[in-house]
Write a structure and sequence with these properties.
Layout lengths: L5 E6 L3 E2 L2 E9 L2 E7 L8 E7 L1 E8 L13 E7 L4 E9 L4 E2 L3 E8 L3 E2 L2
Antiparallel strand pairs: 1-2, 1-7, 3-6, 4-5, 6-10, 7-8, 8-10, 8-11, 9-10
Length: about 120
């Protein structure tokens, strides 16, 4: 069995991002379900609210941190090591990009994600 990891990320704005080995985590969009207790068990249920898709990356610092400053409508294609592909349309960068010792840390979010393959 192959453990899935983020293998490649392609941005419609910046092209293929220089991902460091093991430098990505992907959380697909989903739903948060909060239990609502009723007075009897039959009346217990839940309320549901959507959660944003999130992609956190550690990149080789071959890009300028300012390249990410104005990204607010990017389409990301995320390719996992197991071969599946996901997209995050209309993605935005959540915070200022942090430059470390030869690496950049960047987080994208999107209202949803979709599995392509």
């Amino acid at each position: 069995m192959i453990l899935n990891k983020v293998k490649r990320v392609i941005s419609s704005v910046l092209g293929e991002l220089p991902l460091k080995e093991g430098g990505g985590t992907f959380k697909p969009g989903a739903y948060k379900r909060e239990t609502q207790l009723g007075e009897v068990a039959e009346n217990t249920g839940y309320t549901e609210s959507p959660t944003a898709a999130e992609l956190s990356l550690t990149l080789n610092a071959s890009l300028d941190p300012q390249d990410f400053r104005d990204i607010s409508n990017d389409t990301l294609t995320i390719i996992l090591s197991g071969g599946s592909e996901h997209t995050m349309p209309n993605a935005w960068v959540t915070d200022a990009v942090e430059l470390g010792t030869g690496e950049l840390k960047v987080t994208y979010q999107s209202a949803k994600s979709e599995k392509l393959v």
